[in-house]
Amino acid sequence: MKTFPKIAAVVAVAGAAVFASVLPGSADVAAQSPSVGAVRVESPATLDARGAVVRVSVTVVCTPGQPAYVGIDLVQRSGGDIARGGDSHYIPSCTGGAQTVELIATAYEEPFRKGVTWARGSLNTPSYGTIYDEREIEIVR
Fold first, then answer.
1. How many CA atoms within 13 Å lie on the side-chain side of 82?
2. DSSP one-letter code for 62
3. Cis-peptide into 44, omega within 30 deg
């Protein structure tokens, strides 16, 4: 009966040693890779081509080496109508750091005007699915 406590103690020490040897490697991976993806629509955006397009910068962070799609959708009251537009861009390999992409949102029907608009930026990756950033931004000339 006295042998069981000794065996249990040896197994516990061996298990703790294995766990401790794996732990530093896990910490290294976590330090090198972002724990979550991120997307941010930058303001101001720039009106171009007499309102036919708006140039919008979108900053993203995603897992190094993974592909990603970055998108933008804009909605703005334009007189008595609604101006809408969007664009997307494919990133073949994320860097793991902040990457800024310039998207050119093309107006679908009504032209955009300088002023406030509603923006919805998106980041889609295999690791995180789709993440959104929704905010008002300023459109300048």
1. 6
2. -
3. yes
Beta strands in 1-141, from DSSP E residues, in sequence order:
38-41, 45-48, 53-61, 68-78, 81-91, 99-107, 115-125, 129-140
pLDDT in tens, the chain (141 residues): 555 444 444 444 444 443 344 334 434 444 455 456 899 999 999 999 999 999 999 999 999 999 999 999 999 998 889 999 999 999 999 999 999 999 999 999 999 999 999 999 999 999 889 999 999 999 999
Contact 99, 123 (CB under 8 A): no
**Is the separation of the CB atoms in 119 and 110 below 8 Å?**
no
Tokens, residue 49: 């081509």
Q: How far is the C-alpha of 22 from the C-alpha of 87, rounded, in Å?
A: 44
State the DSSP code for 51.
G
- Looking at the DSSP bridge assignments, the partners of residue 95 are none
